[in-house]
Every structure is written in C-alpha cells, then in structure tokens.
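Running this now, will post back.
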Amino acid sequence: MPKKEKDNSLKIIRGIAQAAAMAYDGALDEDGKPLEIGLKREQGNPLIDKRIMDGFKVKVSGTKLIVSYHSELLLKDVYANKKGSLESELEQTMADIVKYLKKQYRKITKSALSLKEVGEVDAMVQTTSRIRVFVTASKIYEIQNLTDVEDAEVESTDTLEASFKKFLDQGGLGTKAKNDKRKTES
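Update: finished.
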C-alpha cells in the first residue's frame, strides 16, 4: 500500500475525530456564539431552563463511521408522540450531527467528507424512573473517501511468509525430544 494513500486515510480519520472533538457542551464558534449542532441541549436559555443531557460520539471501524447519540427524555414525551415519531426524530438528529461533522470537516481539512448511510437508526430506550428514560441510538455510515482501508467485516487472507509457514508445518508439539531421558508417564 503506497504511503500517500495511508497518509490520506489518516488525514480523513483525524479530520473526523477533530470535528467531533469540537462539539463539546459549551463550545463556541468563531464569532463567540454557542455552537449549533442540532442537539436538544442547545434549545432554551441555559440559565433559566432545565438542562437536557444529550451528546454524540463517533468511531471508525474499517470503512464505516459509527455515530452514537445519547439523550434523556421524559416518558410522557415518548408515549405522547405518534408511533414512529421517536425514530423519525432520531433520524433527524443523526442527520443534523452528520451535517455538522461535514461542515466542521470541511473547515479543518479544506476538503469534503462523503458519507453514505448504511441502514436505519438503531435505538434502545431504557427507563431510569417513572418519569425519565434514556435513549441510546447509533447509525452506521460508509466513508466514501477511504480507499485503502480494509473493511473490518471482510475475512483476512493468509499472509504468513513461506519460511515461517514451513517451520510451523514441522510440528513437534507433543513429541518427545531425542535427548530427553525422563521416564514417560502412562
């Protein structure tokens, strides 16, 4: 694999990591205004309103980018919505997060980040009390710009050198050496 392609992949992954790292709670943009990602914690006045805990993280596995989102909701909000609206709300949140990542990636690297959706949002809702629930959602995207990275799900090929393979084929495990004078156990 050429060094130039490795460097390109490393730059892409570092750019994604830097864009995600700049999304902490309380982050400010270039103008000194609060950063807008599309999360619930950005709504309302932080001094007066109750703070909503939510956030996201990203991880790269082969050519896949996995975006995870965590939030706390009121139980009445989960049941008050029509069937499927929680999923559509999570889809919209994921779309906002990806839009933010692409925008920040472009600012950092001066190049575009191309992501392709792979499947739907996978969400898990857990109760913490009779009032609140936690929702944890994740969505997988394929990073189109990564060309030289192997997919983690693809089976690897045998890359042993011939001399090492010959050594392993000789075996000998479990056989007694010629100069071993100990009595054999039955």
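Residues 3-150 form one domain. More later if anyone needs it.
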